[in-house]
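Hey,

The postdoc asked me to send both predictions to you directly instead of through the lab channel. I've kept everything plain text so nothing gets mangled by the mail client. Protein one:
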Amino acid sequence: QVQLVESGGGLVQPGGSLRLSCAASESIFSFNAMGWYRQTPGNERELVAVITRGGVTNYADSVKGRFTISRDNAKSTVYLQMNSLKPEDTAVYSCNARRAWSVGSLDYWGKGTLVTVSS
């Protein structure tokens, strides 16, 4: 069973920075893509950033220029560097890993880590 363990969440003031980590129990190259999603109460989970096996990255418009997704293959870990944080970035951030085949795909999720941006 694939395990994804997030860390790095917490309370930060507006304009501050945090780095989230997602440690996978298997090689991150075994996944087609890995990414970060976030969710606030009453809202659907939204994609924040994704990195493909080939290293292509994609970001939600709301975080472009502020957040950076990266990976350390040797540590099987994906990171989300969050700078210039805003109160509206407050959410539970969850790590996702996806395996895809011609007939479908399978998603794995971490339990999430809370990020609170407040003064």
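Protein two:
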Amino acid sequence: QVQLVESGGGLVQPGGSLRLSCVASGSIFSGDVMGWYRQAPGKQRELVATITSGTTTNYADSVKGRFTISRDNAKNTVYLQMNSLKPEDTAVYYCSVKRRILLTTSDYWGQGTQVTVSS
């Protein structure tokens, strides 16, 4: 089992920055993909960014060039540095771990942290 705890959300003005952190308890395997998703009111949850243990990254087009995902494998922690924030970035941000073992895929989620971008 994996438990994820996010922190770092809050209220920020447009153009500002925030850094989200997510600490995973339990074992994190080298094949696990860690990532961030977000869900705005009335919308479906969407991918923000993912990162493998080998630091291969993937970003949603809407955040490329503004957000940076990073991972500290020794601390079982994943970060999301968010710069040049826009009102449309307002959402609950969720940390995730995707684990594939043979033919079984398991998804683990944190409780979410609110990010509000407003003047």
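Summary for protein two, as requested: The CA atoms of residues 31 and 37 lie 19 Å apart.

Thanks,
C.
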